[in-house]
Amino acid sequence: MSLINNVISVIYSLDTALMMTLIFFVVGLIFRMKIRDNLKAALYVGIGYTGLQIVINYMNQVLEPAISYFATLGTGFTTMDMPWTALAGLQFAAPWTFISIPIMCFASVLFVRCKIFKTIHLDIWGYGQSLLAGGFAFVLFNSYIIGILVTFGTFILCLILADRNAQRWSTALNMPNTTNSTLFWMSVGGSMCWLVNKIIDFIPKLRDLEWDPKWMQNKLGILGETSVMGALLGIILGLSARLGFSQILVMAIGLASVMVLLPHTLKIFMEGIGMITSASSTWAMKFIGEGSEVYFAVDIAMASGTPVAITVATIMYPLTILLAYVIPGVHYFPIGTMSMILYLGGWCAMYCKQNFFRALVCAICVMIFLMCGAQFVSEAATYICTYFGVEVAGQVTSVAFSDWIYIIMTSIHKLFC
Which residues contact 204 (CB under 8 A, 6 or more apart)? Predict the structure, then answer.
């Protein structure tokens, strides 16, 4: 057992891009690719992901002055908003954590081989959400059995949702044979976006709005160009944050650069994925049956590189601050929430097939739900964090605990425990 713990600890300590390279190299071996082609494909996946993270980190650096300004507005709030990164250590807190990871890896491949699911989910960081949910249940109900059931139950739920979202994901992002690995976004984001889109479909004029990038370029002319739109967003955001003239210009060129560079980094990633998916089709036809499909679960970050995703995310930064003041019953300032807004934009843009209007409406509704959910579970979240040794001052919460599973568990605990 200690050997398994040590191996998993080493894996989690690796750089994300390196881990993805290794994972997809192993996937290539499973699909019996030639070593040369396999190595090239795995490296392209790692290089593409590295480029994506470099651009995203640069975007966060560009936006930092605006976010810092918004943070100064958060006075009078009584609950601390913790970012997802502060909760990462809780994934390892439950006693069964380390043995769960190899079981999930093996089960993912076995399920595909037995035609139970179509998704190969080897995103080890994606497992963290199931492990965190299991740890939450373990502490809340003081039960090993419930904790283990929640861990593997949410893993199965992730595979079910990944299969259901595969066609939409691969089509909207032009990433054949891929799907999402992030349970949080498929659960909360998927259900809320489905509901919002159904409501919009009942409103005559709104349902016909097709504000995709091509429409925006045709209607707005030069203002609809990706780079110009990024620069304008930077100027608007800089003005709303009351930045100086030079800082506004830096933000403008920074967001324009992000708008142009992100799609190019995703192309490198998809070139590597493309080589592996070609091999997977041959493997699926031989071992599963003709016409069978296999999807690879990838991180939500892969959805965040489109112009619509970046535009929605940029608009949501100041809107999220505004929502903290106007939503009744919310007593925390969402500074920790800022770290996931880019992924919010990515998910909503993907789900709405790059329709800007629908994506923005969905993002606002999802954010309202997340903030209300985070407030609802704040008491339980504080107890969980304290139990696992996270230093907290007063009451804390996080949108990471806004998933349906946490809301359901907290509701059951409040009613019956």
Answer: none
